[in-house]
Amino acid sequence: MRKFWNWVRDETTEERTLYLNGEISDETWYGDEVTPKMFRDELMAGTGDVTVWINSPGGDVFAAAQIYNMLMDYTGKVTVKIDGLAASAASVIAMAGGDVYMSPVSMMMIHNPSTIAIGDSEEMLRAKALLDEVKESIINAYELKSGLSRAKISHLMDAETWMNANKAIELGFADKILFMESDERIPLDTGQGLIFSRAAVYNSLLGKMPKKPKPKTGTPIEQLEKRLFLISH
């Protein structure tokens, strides 16, 4: 069975790094006693803090659930760093981080669980009931990390929501952006950036406008707005 994880130990600090790359599990972990035991044995083979790097499109939801539980139950500090993609089931594992960092060029995606079912209408109803319960279990992890309401999270999953680092932090799915010296971020919805940019453009254009000998009425900004209005209309 292909391992989708790899452990690296720093001999000087005793800190360990876990790399989760690619699709999570080629086979389902539901009823499989080998793969979960392998992961658990490797996780418990050492102590100290653990850093988890994630770059995965997701995979088996039960495999992700078991990794999530093991990391949540681990006695050391667990820090998650997303360097590429944490989508679907991989986003559930990311929620196990005490601190979740995202690269400024990374993405996180959450959506509804899916499956393949064959059979009559009763079988289809059973499959739907299973998916509904799986969704509720996934929401449990998202709710615990983000603090968002279950209804809000459900809507985000329905819409298959893709989040860059800023959006994930805004919604509570992540905590910080990697490689940034300061944690301070200008809110995107305040309009402050727009106001600043407008003033900067006005000042720059005013400096390039030829001076006229006769006096003008109104403020320099009002004069410029009149000229811009005439040019654009």
Describe the structure.
- The protein is of the alpha/beta class.
- It folds into two domains: 173 residues, 2-enoyl-CoA Hydratase, Chain A, domain 1 (Alpha-Beta Complex), CATH 3.90.226; 41 residues, no CATH class.
- It is built from eight helices and eight strands.
- Strands 1, 2, 3, 4, 5, 6, 7 and 8 form an eight-stranded mixed sheet that branches.
- The C terminus is likely disordered.
Short description:
With about 230 residues, the protein is α/β, with parallel strands linked by helices.
The CATH class of the largest domain is: Alpha Beta
Derived structural class: alpha/beta
Order of helices and strands: EEHEHEHEEHHEHEHH
The number of helical segments is: 8
The backbone outline, from C-alpha atoms, is globular
Quaternary form: single chain
What's the Cα radius of gyration?
Answer: 25 Å
Q: Spell out the CATH superfamily of the largest domain.
A: 2-enoyl-CoA Hydratase, Chain A, domain 1
Share in β-strands: 15-25%
Distance between the termini: 67 Å
Average pLDDT, all residues: 83
Question: According to CATH, what is the topology of the largest domain?
Answer: 2-enoyl-CoA Hydratase, Chain A, domain 1
Instruction: Assign the CATH architecture of the largest domain.
Output: Alpha-Beta Complex
Beta-strand segment tally: 8
Low-pLDDT segments: 186-198, 228-233
What is the percent of helical residues? 40-55%
Estimate nothing, just give the exact number of structural domains: 2
User: Mind describing the biggest β-sheet?
Assistant: 8 strands, mixed
